[in-house]
Each structure stands twice: as structure tokens, then as C-alpha cells.
Amino acid sequence: MIAITQKGMTMASKTVLSGVCNLFRQIICFLQLEPIARGIALFLGGFALLNILGEFRQPGFDSNCWWIDLRPTGYAISRSLLGVVSAVLLFYAMKPRLGQIRKKITLQVCVLLVFFCELNIIAFYWLMLSGKISAGIPVPFSLFVCAGIMIIFRAITTNAKPEGGRKEKAMMYLTVFTVAMLFPLGQMYFFGKTDYRRNADAIVVLGARVYADGRCSDALADRVRTGCQLYNEGLAGVIVFSGGPGDGDIHETDAMRTMAIGLGVPAEAIIVDRAGLCTQATVENTCQTFAANGIDKVLVVSHFYHLPRIKLTYQRNGLEVYTIPAKERCTLRALPKYLLREIAALWVYYIRPLA
Predict the structure, then answer these.
(1) What is the 3-state secondary structure (H, E, C) of 303-347?
(2) Count of beta carbons in the 10 Å neighbourhood of residue 260
(3) Among 23, 207, 323, 345, which one has the highest count of C-beta atoms within 10 angstroms of its own C-beta?
(4) Burial classification of residue 338, based on how many CB atoms lie within 10 Å of its CB (0-12 exposed, 13-18 middle, 19 or more buried)
(5) Domain segments of the chain: what residues?
């Protein structure tokens, strides 16, 4: 009876898996695989090239590690590889009719990218299992990058004749737009929700709304509470609160400082930045403070959706920081609005040095 049951379950599992695979194939066929693959290639190739060129204009601009981390190969090799990758992907996206030589080169580049994605995935799980990071979502972003590259590989190996009509071009550019929206969203959820806490010289907590009566908003209270927890765990000896004016007479940093003292942080361990009117201002102000006090290793606390932009801005200012998402006691009601705003803000901050 047990054997029959197990056999039945196995057959049912195979039936479900077969159905899912058939559905996936039908969806891909309906959407047309080749324009989608070209759209993914256009985004990744364009993003890689923009980072390479942007680095010449401003050191620290390169953010290619957002999608694939080649840094272990060394600076010169990683830059050379990414240059080849960007050229091959862009050439495929714009000129998809591949001769035998181009087809072979493009497929080899896809295999190389999948290989490095697999290394990034292994590194993610090694860091997580060794306790060096705590992932809010135990799935690496590299897994989705790998899937995108496999779509390109599949489109090339199907030998379908690429069409250049308006419908196909529209689908390709729609794919680029969709990936451009999902890409920062992925950074928020996969990077932003990962806790990189470790011993450091200082903790920075970014401000949020303070009501007219001086009460901290739920968002601000979550951030301050998380920063104080890090301090009380002995991870750093200094905590910096950065913010701007509140709704009333109470400044954000005053409310943060009062709350922190109530949570056991001594007043002498607190530094306030009252001119932290935006992320850029907070980063610039705190970097000056750190330089004056010999602080090199910093933990930064904010909400998960905000952390990729904070990380990017500190990197552009020459400081490597470790981010910790605020522990939320309740889900923010306006979260969808914050996510949409942050998608736009992250791209604005990203391209700002090129303006």
C-alpha cells in the first residue's frame, strides 16, 4: 500500500512538473523568446558598458557588481571581461542575425557569465551558512541574473530566425523597460534585506518623519531601535543620527537622540548631523565627520528599500559601508509608494555623476 502511494505521488509529481514545463514553454512562445532575450542582452550589455565608461569620469561609479561580481579575478581582468561581455551582448541585441563565428562567441560569453553567476551563488550561500551575513530572502539575486542569461542562450540555440518588425522591436524595448524597473527592486529586496552587521568604528542611522508633537514615526522608531541594538551589542562605540527638521519644533535628530538615550545609549556616544536633509547630504556630512575622527569601518541603518541607494552614495564618496535593514515592527502602509519612489531615486542617484 505504501509502495502504491509513493508510486502514485511520484507519478503525480511528474505530471505536475510536466504541466508546469509545458505552461512555461507556451508562455515563452506566446511572448516570443527572441525579442525578450535581446531586451535582456541590451540592458545588461548597456549597463556593463555604462559602468565601465562612467568609472573613467568618477572613481567609484562602477556598479557592475550589482548584477555579477568579477572582482575576485582582479581589476584588470574583470574590466577586460566586462568590456568583452558588453560588446558581445549589445551586438547580439542590435544585430541578432548571427553567423557561425558570432554565434559561437556569443554562446561562449553566455557560458562564461553563467559560470561566474554560479560562483556568486555559491559565495552567497557560503557567507550565509558561515554566519557572515543574514539574508532576509535566502535566495541570491545572481540566480535571477543566471536565468536571464539562460534565456539569451536558449534564444540563440533555438535557431529561430530573428524578426525585425515593429512588434518585435516594441517587445524588446518593453523588456528593457521592465528589467530596468525590476532591477532596482531586486536590489532592494535581495541586497537591502540582507544584514551585514559586524564590528565597526561607527553606526549611522538615517532619519525619517517626526510628528509635530515630537513623536517618532514608526519608520524612524524602527531605525533608531535597530541602531541602538547594534550599539548595545558592542559592534561600535559611536552612533551617528542624521536627519532634517520635523513636522513641528522638534528636529529629527533631537527625537532620535532622546529615544536612543532611553534605550541605554550614553549621550557621549551620540553624534548628530542636523543637516541630513537627504541621502546625499547625510553621506557627505558623515564622511567629513569620519575623516576628521579617523573612522573607516561603518554600519548604516535604514529601511531595506533605502539601503541600495545609501550603499551606492557612500561608494561614490570613497567609503565602503555595511548595511543593516531596520527591524520593522509593522509593515509600512505606504510601502508601495516608497518602493516606486525609490526605483526612480536609485536611477537618478546612479546617473547623477554623468549629468
Answers:
(1) CCCCHHHHHHHHHHCCCCEEEEECCCCCCCCCHHHHHHHHHHHHH
(2) 22
(3) 207
(4) middle
(5) 17-194, 196-354
Q: How far apart are CA 310 and CA 158, in angstroms?
A: 42
Say what the pTM is: 0.87
Residue 1 has pLDDT above 60, yes or no: no
* Centroid of chain to Cα 109: 23
Q: Phi and psi (nearest 5°) for 21? A: -65, -40
Q: Which CATH class is domain 196-354?
A: alpha beta
Q: Helices marked H in the chain — which ranges?
A: 2-31, 33-57, 75-94, 100-129, 142-157, 166-186, 218-232, 252-262, 279-293, 307-316, 335-351
How many whole angstroms separate alpha carbon 209 and alpha carbon 220?
Answer: 6
pLDDT at 167: 85
**Non-local CB neighbours of 153 within 8 Å, separated by 6+ positions:** 107, 110, 111, 114
**Tens digits of per-residue pLDDT, 254-289?**
999 999 999 999 999 999 999 999 999 999 999 999
The percent of residues in the chain predicted with pLDDT above 70, rounded, is 90
The burial of 331, by beta-carbon neighbours within 10 Å (0-12 exposed, 13-18 middle, 19 or more buried), is given as: exposed
Q: Which three cell numbers stand for residue 250?
A: 522638534
Residues in contact with 336: Cβ distance below 8 Å, sequence separation at least 6, in sequence order: none
How far is residue 230's CA from residue 263's CA, in Å, rounded to a whole number?
Answer: 12
